[in-house]
Amino acid sequence: MHEKLIAYISQYSNLPLTTEEQALITATFQPKKIRKKQYFLQEGDVCKYAGFIVKGAMRQYSVDDKGTEHIVHLFIENYWANDRESSTMLTPSVYNIDAWEDTELLIITRAEMLYLMDKIPAIAQMIRLMDERNAIVNQRRLSSTISNTAEKRYEEFAAHHQQFIQRFPQHLIASYLGITKETLSRIRKQGTK
Amino acid sequence: MHEKLIAYISQYSNLPLTTEEQALITATFQPKKIRKKQYFLQEGDVCKYAGFIVKGAMRQYSVDDKGTEHIVHLFIENYWANDRESSTMLTPSVYNIDAWEDTELLIITRAEMLYLMDKIPAIAQMIRLMDERNAIVNQRRLSSTISNTAEKRYEEFAAHHQQFIQRFPQHLIASYLGITKETLSRIRKQGTK
DNA sequence: AGAAACCGTTGATATATGTCAACGGTTTTT
DNA sequence: AAAAACCGTTGACATATATCAACGGTTTCT
């Protein structure tokens, strides 16, 4: 089960992982299975673990006063489920993370991750590159949200996230884009003409 | 002029900077002055430098087909002006960064920064923490943009960014929030009642 | 196998926000 | 000192998107 994680880490670094490093990684990341609809993180709890998704699909969302869910992230294989603000600051999360499909994770605490970063250069390297990639992706999404119409946002999203479109129902995609499912339905209908 | 930068870096780390490290930093970061309205980065150019703002105020924005500017970032003292996607990937930027007030910067290339990260642990540490803080801030902004009405977004912004409100005109704040200046004007009027 | 939940779509209508034009008061430029 | 550019506001109107309700077709549960 840890092979996918090892492969994932390796891909970020030119330094190959030693056998000892691989063993340490395997010993540190704990497998965890979550059935569909179960929570990985609940609003109000501190996010204690980051989870690498080996198999499955998850979503992260907040719920407003009216009970409406707002999807902030969608995750599939090779993504990390985590509320960084909560796990870093040790504050209660405003988000929920739950499984959209039955999901297999490899989980790790923040303290363990800091330890691994210290012991394994490739991990430190991976984190740095992930942060960088993350900053870029966030910047793009923000920019798109501020500047573009719903239609253009959907087109951009569809162009770059084909796997998500296939894997999650439309109403989740709509919420991720900050629009209602009805609006997305109308946009798509119009787009095909 | 470099004292403010040294102080800024120190604040991120418990390791104090040695005299040699301070000298290296001072030698690497080049002072640069930019007059109001001048560009630090122009759309289409590769972002060659990151700039630490010692004094002044800047803005980062894209321009759409209709010629409308969309502010994605506002910067004042102790902020970093940079288009990370462009400087990391060496691709032409879709953004402009210009000075809103006369501004003094300390600039550094990506290669130099990587070198400093390698040589000075406190710098590596700073970058890591900045990335972390950044990820959190971006997450919040994104979440707010997706979930909240314009009015609530403005209230949240005003509550946490008093300095920006005092320093930049309303139409820039409006653009930063993804709304028009007219809408912001009406929101504010209503809010005071 | 039947019931229930889920999903996407459509219509009618409501609401938030954008667009355009104009104004008076500043500040900046020359 | 005059002219120009900038800034916030307001009104009238246009548009994008949300809301609410209903429907038929799936899929999921029991």
UniProtKB/TrEMBL annotation, chains A, B:
Query: What top-level branch of life does the organism fall under?
Result: Bacteria
* One Pfam family it belongs to: cNMP_binding
Q: Any idea where the Cyclic nucleotide-binding domain is?
A: 32-118
Matching SUPFAM superfamilies, A to Z? cAMP-binding domain-like
CDD domains for this protein: CAP_ED (cd00038)
User: Which Gene3D superfamilies does the record match to this protein?
Assistant: Jelly Rolls (2.60.120.10)
What's the protein name?
A: Cyclic nucleotide-binding protein
